[in-house]
């Protein structure tokens, strides 16, 4: 019985033979697979080169959550170049991460990527970057995103394809409405209700029911709520969740302080809605500490050091029976498009960070009729405007 190798060999020869009968020697050139040498000398010295600079993100509206308000978000943009090809990344630093432009640039200044001559050694490169400090997750994510973008471009493929995912399976993204006055909440809701299929509402103050009722006076769209650790009484939290379910809410994110694991587990066990961990987890090892206390996890690149660890977290969570959400900070389309590469494999997506700013540097992932639409461009799928 002929082997598989013999079959492939004969099939290849048959195709080559057919080509020779039509166009001769020229057909052989056309049949040759494009060669690619990852270490070829081109427009550079064969080493990785890192460049970075601060870039303040300007919000379209004042953004208020349970614990603070802001109008800007500090950010650092990263470029990683190899042989004339550049990958883009960024570090976004909301207040609660405890990282600053100064800490990020200081960390990036310590990183020596010129010691690497092969960008495909991604595990070695990112393990080295991670080893430089126990913290600095956003700075590490910036390098991780840029490296993934670079390698994807060298492979001429987007990362969702490299991971074996199907773009059409990406879910609709939520669009976030921050805590505000009733009139402003109504205005924001009207502006987005016909463009999105699901909303996300920030709760965690003493006007939670008023917020939901205000939005319900404008739209009946499904709503995900993010409490940002704003509830501290487990019985009141559970009562509120039952009330929320009656008003069309579909999931609850971080209802109680991350330290209140036992209380959160009590709520999750009795909750009619899935309860997702956000502030309670950052990296892969954290998932073990919250198992049994939550129904799912929210993966954010700025918390987990980037795409490499995010992919590991997604697969580990699935293996443990947890639901998965992919989220973002206030970011440009660079980091949002990087996170969106995971979107076809998740249950919920909150990837609207780029839509909340007025000075996005990139074109990338699009939201079409509320649904995440991934570009077919290589890497993370972004181009500079």
How does this structure look, described?
The structure is a single chain. The chain is of the alpha/beta class. The chain folds into three domains: 33 residues; 109 residues, 2-Layer Sandwich (Enolase-like, domain 1); 225 residues, Enolase-like C-terminal domain (TIM Barrel). It contains 14 helices and 17 strands. An eight-stranded parallel β-sheet has the order 6-7-8-9-10-11-12-13. Helix 8 links the parallel strand 7 and strand 8. It starts with a helix and ends with a strand. The relative contact order is 0.13.
For the termini, the CA-CA separation is 58 Å
CATH architecture of the largest domain: Alpha-Beta Barrel
Question: Might you state the CATH topology name of the largest domain?
Answer: TIM Barrel
When the domains are counted, the total is: 3
Question: What is the subunit organization of this protein?
Answer: single chain
Low-confidence stretches: 1-39
Q: How many DSSP-defined strands?
A: 17
Strand order, sheet with most strands: 6-7-8-9-10-11-12-13
- Label the structural class: alpha/beta
Number of helices: 14
What is the CATH level 1 assignment of the largest domain?
Answer: Alpha Beta
Proportion of beta-strand residues: 15-25%
Radius of gyration: 23 Å
Quick one: biggest sheet? 8 strands, parallel
Give the overall shape, derived from the CA principal axes. globular
Helix content: 25-40%
Chain-averaged pLDDT:
89
């Amino acid at each position: 019985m002929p082997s598989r190798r013999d079959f492939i060999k004969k099939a290849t020869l048959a195709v080559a033979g057919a080509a020779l009968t039509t166009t001769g020697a020229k057909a052989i050139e056309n049949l040759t697979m494009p060669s690619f040498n990852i270490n070829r000398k081109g427009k550079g010295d064969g080493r990785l080169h890192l460049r970075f600079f601060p870039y303040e993100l300007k919000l379209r509206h004042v953004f208020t959550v349970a614990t603070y308000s802001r109008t800007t978000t500090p950010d650092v943009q990263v470029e990683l170049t190899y042989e004339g090809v550049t990958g883009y990344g960024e570090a976004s630093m909301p207040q609660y991460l405890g990282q600053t432009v100064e800490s990020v640039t200081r960390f990036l200044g310590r990183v020596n990527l010129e010691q690497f001559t092969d960008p495909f050694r991604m595990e070695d490169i990112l393990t080295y970057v991670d080893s430089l400090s126990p913290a600095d997750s956003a700075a590490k994510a910036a390098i991780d995103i840029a490296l993934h973008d670079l390698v994807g471009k060298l492979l001429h493929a987007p990362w969702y394809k490299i991971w074996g995912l199907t773009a059409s399976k990406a879910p609709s993204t939520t669009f976030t409405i921050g805590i505000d006055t009733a009139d402003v909440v109504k205005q924001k809701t009207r502006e987005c209700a016909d463009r999105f299929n699901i909303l996300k509402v920030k709760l965690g103050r003493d006007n939670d029911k008023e917020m939901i009722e205000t939005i319900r006076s404008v739209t009946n769209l499904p709503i995900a709520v993010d409490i940002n650790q704003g509830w501290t009484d487990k019985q009141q939290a559970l009562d509120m969740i039952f009330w929320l379910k009656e008003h069309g809410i579909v999931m609850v994110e971080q209802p109680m302080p991350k330290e209140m694991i036992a209380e959160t587990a009590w709520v999750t066990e009795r909750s009619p809605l899935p309860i997702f961990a956000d502030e309670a987890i950052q990296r892969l090892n954290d998932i073990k500490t919250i198992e049994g206390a939550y129904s799912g996890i929210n993966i954010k690149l700025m918390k987990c050091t980037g795409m490499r660890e995010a992919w590991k977290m997604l697969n580990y969570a699935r293996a443990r029976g947890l639901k998965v959400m992919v989220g973002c900070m206030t970011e440009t389309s660079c980091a949002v498009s990087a996170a969106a590469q995971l979107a076809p494999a998740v249950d919920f997506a909150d990837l609207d960070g780029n839509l909340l700013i007025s000075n996005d540097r990139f074109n990338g992932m699009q939201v079409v009729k509320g649904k995440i639409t991934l570009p077919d461009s290589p890497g993370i799928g972004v181009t500079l405007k």
